[in-house]
Write a structure and sequence with these properties.
By secondary structure, the chain is of the alpha+beta class. The chain has ten helices and 18 strands. The strands form four sheets. It has an eight-stranded mixed beta sheet. The protein has a four-stranded antiparallel beta sheet with strand order 4-5-18-17. A four-stranded antiparallel beta sheet has the order 11-12-10-13.
Length: about 400
């Protein structure tokens, strides 16, 4: 890489980081909950379009948009993708300030979605902008993928890949922090266990079977489930099996308006974070093993297992994210490591799992399954709601590392 160009890009990021913070503030002000990404996608489309990028607004599902923008190279070089999701987590109660009004305090910028992951989005957009403004001699393309639906299991990234947008390598600017390079995460699936009953009016309950009552027993048994897996030293807290929601009523549409009828259908929605070697089939079998003693002692207990969760559950995650474990000798690992050391003066603190963030999954697995080597490197901050924030210093470092990685790959 050209030493003078490196210094110029790094200096410009330090000098102009107010532009990055202004962009983040504008992103925070746009609500973009899962399934409601259209407004922020249009904003980003206009932002990139006004600056000369090749812009594609994709409709992932009716009313769900995402923005894929490309800083075109001159040709003949390798391409690099910056990938980040524009959908945001639900907001908890109890914010000390208006979550839609960005606020800076010291090294922190507070605001809705700032942590996961509008801070990362702003950093990767700003990195691409510094490359554009510096007239860096890029031969390969830099693709800035601002995708929808990562919180749904990666709907947007899969949609993008299915439409042929691929690069030689990628960096996902998720909020794992900029001290280490993450190349490992667990898998995530959502599953449903249904209990089946027989409804009767409460005036004459004889012959009824209460699906909600049966579910209470099922949840008790699942709370001590023994999962079949090979432990990993780098993921010591995994796997996790958590009953996160229960709904019961009449029929598979969950009629809750007639509670004077005994429930004939009840569903437990379960979040499973699983390790390499586990599969949806093995996890379902673990559930069957856990419930077998109940079935043996209660002939009225009937249940079903459904993966993914039925669409009748609002906001249900339909896509499974598998565990991710990138070989450390992949070129992208060296690229980001070199850029990190150029920026900080030291090598990354670690390469591999970054805990506790690697206990969740993200779009790296979809990129890797599509043949795109990728790592996770993005700014962290305050994860716990309320009062989420991102660290400005890590946003700045992330932008520098991403920009230098692109100079390495695409020049």
């Amino acid at each position: 890489m050209n030493g003078r160009l490196i210094n110029d890009v790094v200096a410009a990021i330090d000098r102009d980081k107010g532009e990055m913070l202004d962009l983040l503030a504008r992103l925070i002000k746009i609500p973009s909950f899962k399934g409601q990404e259209a407004d922020i996608a249009r904003f980003l489309g206009n932002y990139f379009g006004q600056r000369g990028y090749e812009v594609e607004i994709q409709e992932v599902a009716p009313g769900r948009l995402q923005t894929i923008s490309t800083l075109k190279g001159s040709g003949g070089g390798k391409s690099l993708m910056f990938n980040g999701h524009i959908d945001m987590d639900p907001l908890a109660d109890g914010w000390a300030y208006d979550p839609w009004t960005p606020r800076i305090a010291g090294d922190r910028m507070y605001g809705a979605g700032s942590f996961n992951m509008k801070g990362g989005i702003a950093a990767m957009v700003f990195a691409a902008e510094q490359l554009r403004k510096s007239n860096a001699p890029l031969r390969g393309d830099v693709v800035v993928a601002c995708v929808a639906g990562e919180l749904s299991g990666g709907d947007g990234t899969v949609h993008m890949l299915d439409r042929g947008i691929k690069t030689d390598m990628a960096v996902v600017a998720e909020c794992f922090g900029t001290e280490s390079i993450a190349t490992v995460h667990v898998g995530v699936l959502h599953m449903a266990v249904h209990t089946l009953g027989t409804t009767k009016h409460i005036r004459y309950p004889e012959g009824s079977v209460d699906a909600i009552e049966k579910m209470q027993k099922v949840i008790g048994a699942l709370s001590s489930i023994n999962m079949t897996y090979e432990p990993r030293d780098d993921l010591p807290g995994m796997p996790v099996f958590h009953v996160g929601g229960v709904v019961g009523g009449l029929g598979r549409e969950y009629n809750l308006a007639d509670p004077y009828y005994i429930s004939d259908f009840c569903t437990a929605v379960i979040n499973v974070h699983f390790v390499h070697g586990q599969t949806p089939e093995s996890i379902a079998n673990d559930v069957r093993q856990a419930l077998a003693p109940l079935v043996a002692e209660d002939p009225e207990l009937k249940y079903e297992i459904e993966i993914p969760v039925p669409k009748a559950i609002p906001g249900s995650r339909q896509r499974i994210m598998e565990p991710f474990d990138l070989p450390k000798d992949e070129c992208i690992v060296g690229v980001v490591s070199r850029a990190h050391e150029l920026v900080t003066g030291s090598p990354p603190a670690s390469i591999g799992a970054v805990l506790p963030l690697s206990y969740s999954a993200n779009d790296t697995i979809h990129l890797w399954n599509a043949g795109i080597p990728c790592v996770i490197y993005g700014p962290t901050g305050g994860e716990n709601e309320p009062d989420a924030y991102v660290l400005i210093s890590q946003m700045t470092q992330c932008a520098k590392v991403l920009a230098l990685s692109a100079l390495d790959v695409c020049s």
